[in-house]
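Record 1 of the preview.
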Amino acid sequence: IVCSPDERRKYWPGRKSLWEDSEHPDGGFGRGYDKNGSWKGNELKDSTIYILKNTGTNEKPIFQTCEEIYSFSSMDHIVDAIPVDVDGDGKLELLIRMNIDGLYMLKLNDDLKPEGTPVEMKCSPLKRAHYETSFFPCDINKDGKVDILVSGNPGVVFWLENTGEHLVERPPLLKHGGDVKAETLSVPCFADMDNDGHMELIVGDSSGYLWYFDNHDDEANKYIDKTNRYIFKAGKRMKANGKEIHHQAGYSGSIQGPAEKRWGYTNPLTVDWDEDGLIDIIVNDITGKIKWYRNIGTKNRPEFNEAKTLMCNGKEFVAAWRSRPAMWGSNMLVVINIDGFTQFFIKDEKDCSIVHEGNLLRYIDGCAIRCCGPGGHLGRTVLFTCDWDNDGVMDIVGGTHRDLTRHINAFFPRKSTVFWLKNIGTNSMPVFERPRLITFKDGSPIDFVCHKCSPWCIDMDGDGELDLALGAEDGKVYTWLRKELKWDWEPSKDFSDVED
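->
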């Protein structure tokens, strides 16, 4: 079975992709949707499903020319389909995933031609998988009925149980041990959430969840021998007011259009925002709206109130999407604003849910600091503030998408990687030198492939100096000790010819 997508550019307003290195008149915040909230591009795309019949054997397959089975319109760039006898009548049906998270069944006759139109199944929409998905028919529970093993964009594997009447979505398959992993595009924060002296891990992901990984607090098991990595218990999805935290774009929440309705891109920051002694969580997401989850629990047992969107200038505070703000002192956020420039936002003295615009951060030559690109390349950068070079003043560490690095420094490689901005001013009046890469000791760049490189700096080996943790495309969190890294390159050091 082969699924053929339509020409992709028609999806975008004016047939111009947001991913090109230029401003888009119908792309970005406040653009892309008309006054009625409808997408200005063509949200439905034509897809065709073909079959290549095997006239040989399983050992020596011989495939005939493609034959069209079915054509239809869907919100996807790519749809997925497999032939399987879902209803147990001895005939194949076509199981189709389309419209991002919808699951449909199309009856086929003996000649594998469609009978009627696809019917949405009772397990649709799928909760744990959406564009793109992979299906594999197998009898998981050994009851004689064909179940469906499913994986999808979030990076989880789960199964649809065949009850004999319909398919039922079952929880993800689990494994013992392994790496810390959220869903895809992880954004980590370390904080002692339960005041036991050990760091917990809070992780955001592309699916829009917040994950809580409790540290094993047994001192004997604090580190893995020779790797100096923390050991954590299995991750749990976090809740606020008893409800699972789940940020989703919906139809019009993404600048990339309704095809991203199931994405969330949570970018959390752990901080005692209201200065009550409890660690809260500030979150940016796919919408760019900065939200505050206030910790209403105790020092030993964190619990969170329903999110409150921060306000600025009497309106909801909207920053560049998919970016993470960082703290500067106790009362200021460093934020990539909706124009792509790095700016201070100051917490109101009386109401923590209000922030006020502060100054743009600038380089030594007076230019405002831009940590992203135009159009669809707005935002996408994760910030962290710390005294990286141990000179007594706060610096900025950032990580970003591979197509944004050249907008940050023309000498950077086209890789999802990490960089830092040295503060040569003071904490109260910062002035920054141009960005430098943080590389491996041998000078080779850290390469996180494409979408995400999310830094958090923490002393992992107890030597009093900051080490580096990075969230990645695959949902995992990677760590390096400081002694394994090099960061004192000149900003003009040319890495641009390093191969992709």
